[in-house]
Design a protein that fits this description.
This protein is of the alpha/beta class. It has one domain: Glycosidases (TIM Barrel), CATH 3.20.20.80. An eight-stranded parallel barrel has the order 1-2-3-4-5-7-9-12, surrounded by six helices. The chain has a two-stranded parallel ribbon with strand order 6-8. A hairpin with a 4-residue loop joins strand 13 and strand 14. The longest helix has 24 residues. Bound molecules: 5-hydroxymethyl-3,4-dihydroxypiperidine (IFM).
Length: 476
């Protein structure tokens, strides 16, 4: 009953079917009660929490780990908001056992983490680091001992600096090194991993790292970035082929950061801009992965910045995958004549300035299923937000984050009801961590981290998620 009411509310607030005029959208819905209260999900639906290695592990120079491009990038003055780095982060490298206890006690089924490539292979080529491999051995076995599924991501952006020195993702040779790395992980851990993701958010790695230059390795060259995106996709396809040939039991996939693109007005110029930006963010990745070609409109727009593609590359990229990971935070509104600011437009925004827009998740999932029916399962591999964390009587009352999670989980349910095969939902993030160029200033955790003491405290959002999961496991 409540679910139906919420469906109607989401549709009134922008709908799943009208990617156009945002001007007439009513104010953000403020649900009076928990819209997930009476929702149930399929029994095999996977609930989880997500993190990544660089953002939580610390131990940047310990036990033989080599430097990554993020270690190097953080050394540059002015690139990280609070001038911080990943040297200590959440000290998860030492606190992993307590952190796994905490994850288990939340009642989730799964933990999505990433493997730090230079921790297991310091240069990205050549010698392997047993101490680094041992860490992941302990971590993965620790998950299984606690009844948690282990979902590993191979590349969450921390490329070994040793490979950057040879050209990084712009060099075709990095593709071969990545396949070797993927095979090593499969041989050591594949029998215990529920899934392996090749890359997290290749758009971010390529464009923020190599075009805008605000992420590592800090390069500002669009053609270079486009070539990087091609090599990321190619290495994904080649790694999937190699892992299948090795007989992996783990489900294989890739994770994309996606958002519906809405034009700011009905004008032809805004609609054209939204279409092209959709091509650059979504179709640039999903078309090669599913259809084996880049979108023609984006290629035309790129002109001589289009990537160098060798014969056979596109067939290599188009490999059947078991799931597509979707990281969803917000929609994007496109205006031909400049930046559209959700805050100025009166929308609710997170501390990142990202509009809170749950209906966009339903819309995105339905669109992916419609345009790419060959994708067998869509997993929400990240969803969450940086919101204020007021302490009241020893508790973190992060009401905005609680509402955000409730509304987005309800949006997933709507997608499932409409026939979209959604298999998992994982909150970003388990705990506050190093938020890249924002340093430690932005907190996405459902668990608060006091960086001075490394004390972990469950925020209200974690308490709410735990109660929600209890209801799910009892059949609601
Ligand atoms: O913290 C990041 C994560 O590493 C990748 N996806 C988006 C998150 C929030 O910005």
């Amino acid at each position: 009953m409540r679910a139906a009411t919420h469906t109607a509310a989401l549709r009134e607030d922008g709908g799943n079917d009208r990617p156009n005029n945002i001007i007439s959208y009513p104010e953000q819905i403020k649900p009076m009660s928990d819209p997930t209260r009476s929702l149930t999900f399929p029994p095999d639906f996977v609930w989880g929490v997500s993190t990544s290695a660089f953002q939580i592990e610390g131990a940047a120079k310990l036990d033989g780990k080599g430097p990554s491009i993020w270690d190097r990038f953080c050394e540059q003055p002015g690139v990280i908001a609070d001038a911080s780095n990943g040297d200590i982060a959440c000290d998860h490298y030492h606190r992993w056992a307590d952190d796994l206890d905490l994850i288990r006690d939340l009642g989730v089924d799964a933990y999505r983490f990433s493997i730090c490539w230079p921790r297991v292979q310091p240069m990205g080529h050549g010698a392997w680091n047993e101490k680094g491999l041992d860490f992941y051995e302990r971590l993965i076995d620790g998950m299984l001992a606690r009844g948690l599924q282990a979902h590993a991501t191979l590349n969450h952006w921390d490329l070994p600096q040793g490979l950057q020195d040879q050209g990084g993702w712009h060099a075709r040779s990095t593709v071969d090194h990545f396949v070797e790395y993927a095979l090593m992980i499969q041989r050591r851990f594949g029998d215990r991993l529920s899934s392996i993701v090749t890359h997290n958010e290749p758009w971010v790695a390529a464009m923020l790292g190599h075009h805008q230059g605000i992420f590592a390795p800090g390069i500002k060259d669009e053609a270079h970035a486009i070539q990087v995106s091609h090599h990321l996709l190619l290495s994904h396809g080649r790694a999937v082929q190699a892992l299948r040939a090795e007989g992996t039991q783990a489900k294989l996939g890739i994770v994309l950061n996606l958002a519906p693109m809405h034009p700011a007005t009905h004008s032809e110029a805004d609609r054209a801009k939204a279409r092209l930006e959709d091509g650059k963010l979504l179709r640039w990745y999903t078309d090669p992965l599913c259809h084996g070609h880049y979108p023609a409109d984006v290629l035309a727009a790129l002109g001589d910045k289009a990537p160098v593609v060798h014969a056979g590359d596109m067939d290599d990229i188009r490999q059947p995958i078991d799931f597509l990971g979707v990281n969803y935070y917000s929609r994007s509104v496109q205006s031909a004549d400049g930046h559209w600011d959700p805050k100025a437009a009166g929308k609710e925004v997170s501390e990142m300035g990202w509009e809170v827009y749950p209906a966009g998740l339903t819309e995105l999932l339905q669109r992916l299923h419609r345009d790419y029916p060959m994708l067998p399962s869509l997993w929400i591999t990240e969803n969450g937000g940086a919101f204020p964390d007021p302490w009241v009587g020893g508790q973190v009352q992060d009401e905005a984050r609680v509402r955000y999670l409730q509304d987005h989980i309800a949006a997933v349910r709507i997608a499932i009801d409409s026939g979209v095969p959604v298999g998992a939902y994982m909150v970003w993030s388990l705990m506050d961590n190093f938020e890249w160029a924002s340093g430690y200033e932005k907190r996405f955790g459902i668990v608060h981290v006091d960086y001075a003491t490394q004390q972990r405290t469950l925020k209200d959002s974690a308490l709410w998620y735990r109660a929600f999961l209890q209801r799910q496991h009892q059949g609601a």
